[in-house]
Amino acid sequence: MATSEYIPEKGSRKGHTPLPVRPAKSPDLFSASVLAPLPTVLNDVAAILVALVLALVLRPILLGKADGVSGIRHSIGSPPMGVFYLVWFVLVYIVIARRYGLYGHVLKAGGGAHEIRMTAQACLNAGMLLCGAVYMTHNLAISRALVIMLTLSAMISLCTRRALGRLRRYRQYERGLDTRHVVIVGTNHISYALGRQLRNESRLGYTVRGHVLSPGCASPAESLGLHVLGSLDEIRKIARKYFIDEIIITEPCPTDRVIRLLKEARELGIDVRTISGYYNDLATNAVIEYLGAFPLVSLHRNTPRTISMAMKRAGDFVLSLLALIAAAPVMLAIAIAIRLETRGSILYVSERIGRRGRVFHCFKFRTMVMNADQLRENLDSLNERDRVLFKVRNDPRITRLGRFLRKYSLDELPQFFNVLRGEMSLVGPRPPLSSEVEKYELEHLRRLEVLPGLTGLWQIEARQDGSFEKYIALDTAYVENWSFWLDLKILARTAEVVVRGTGT
């Protein structure tokens, strides 16, 4: 379910002051384009190390010349030279694989078969150059059989890793996870054919949000049954509302308008591609990338913060797992106490809106009576927060144990399971209810561009502040100024807030 389903088609409210637009930050070390494929490179290095171990184990078994530690020493010669040859093999493979486009943003035509073929070819070329290095250094101590077995086992290991990784992505795409949201500029027959292929072939990993009218187009959008989101002049609004990752131009537009579009795309962090041959002056020497059957060239490519995101996810997984292990006795005691105090379920499970509008089930220890949701309608007049948010300090629905759990935020301990599942992060904006998102203005959707979190800037800076503007401003500031170190600072301050017991 997409967030746009909750947003009514309406303009901004009168008198509403939009949030200030902060200038884009210069990219840091972690967002440099040269480091973007680093997680894939590290996975390949790990696969080569596994292949080395496999080769060292299999060589004495297959050749029957030696066994145990003595066999390994005989195979690799002197340790320094063995390390040198291994590093040489790894570096050569990475350079060749990068040249073949295996670390590119988009793989070239051919799909999985092409990827496996290029991986095997890169391994064989790296093996040949390793043989050349051994020959040029006149090293007679290292086993030639080991070099051959390393090459073959690395080829098998890397191809297997690539194939399994692709299958995992396919399963995610079929479930609608991790897909790229795209709008198609144009309403001609090419636009229709591209949109149909992206919708029908989930393995391509795209979700088509709709079509955008290009300036002066007279294409039959109605007759083709296309879902038109608006005109190209409304691209900022469309990009924010539908969380767009990429724009594909399938119908020629005036060059000056495309240049303006590229400027807007840079500010919004959106990729722009076009059908090959449309704008040769803007895509000089650009590599043709096939999306299904359609040849595209890139006009602008946003540099993803791959390393930072990988660090954030790894930190979320490790810390939430450790927290669950450490808090297991406390959580068991809370569960027993809830069951003894009142009848009903121990956990309260509610539908929340996560990153990019995805609906997920958020877990909490139940702190209210069983029919709390039905009783809320009678408490609207007591709401102490303004506009979208709802809070009653002495809420009669909260149980005696529930007040204690809320005071020290113990009711949110089950949300570490949401973090493990990748639905939430340790730090981020709090996940809103669908009823809250229905009241959002367009600029408020900015807070949904990241994973919701257990804690965030609002929790440590203005938890008792009932202002919705403050709530949105702090969450937006977090999204626009996020860094790994900012998360660490928020986590440190959260511990202090929890110990003081400022929850309500």
Overall description:
It is built from 17 helices and 11 strands. About 8% of the residues have low confidence. The chain folds into 3 domains: 138 residues, no CATH class; 124 residues, Rossmann fold, CATH 3.40.50; 194 residues, no CATH class. 48% of the residues lie in helices and 11% in strands. The strands form 3 sheets. Strands 3-2-1-4-5-7-6 form a 7-stranded mixed sheet. It has a two-stranded antiparallel sheet with strand order 8-9. Strands 10-11 form a two-stranded parallel sheet. It is of the alpha/beta class and 504 residues long. The longest helix has 36 residues.
Features:
3 domains; seven-stranded mixed beta sheet; 17 helices; Rossmann fold; alpha/beta; two-stranded antiparallel sheet
What's a quick, concise take on this entry?
By secondary structure, the protein is an alpha/beta fold.
Succession of helices and strands: HHHHHEHEHEHEHEEEHEEHHHEHEHHH
Calculate Rg over CA atoms. 28 Å
Terminal CA distance: 31 Å
**Spatial strand order of the main sheet:** 3-2-1-4-5-7-6
Major sheet, described briefly? 7 strands, mixed
Structural class: alpha/beta
Portion in helices: 40-55%
**Outline, from the CA principal axes?**
flat
How many distinct domains? 3
Q: List the total number of helices.
A: 17
By DSSP, the count of extended strands is 11
Quaternary = single chain
**In what range is the share of β-strand residues?**
5-15%
Mean pLDDT: 80
* Poorly predicted segments: 6-36, 66-74
Q: How is the topology of this model organized?
A:
Elements: H1 38-63, H2 68-76, H3 79-99, H4 111-136, H5 144-174, E1 180-185, H6 189-200, E2 206-213, H7 221-224, E3 228-231, H8 235-242, E4 246-249, H9 255-268, E5 271-275, E6 289-291, E7 294-300, H10 306-341, E8 347-353, E9 359-365, H11 372-375, H12 400-407, H13 415-420, E10 425-427, H14 434-437, E11 453-455, H15 457-461, H16 468-480, H17 484-500
Parallel strand pairs: 1-2, 1-4, 2-3, 4-5, 10-11
Antiparallel strand pairs: 5-7, 6-7, 8-9
Helix pairs in contact: 1-2, 1-5, 3-4, 4-5
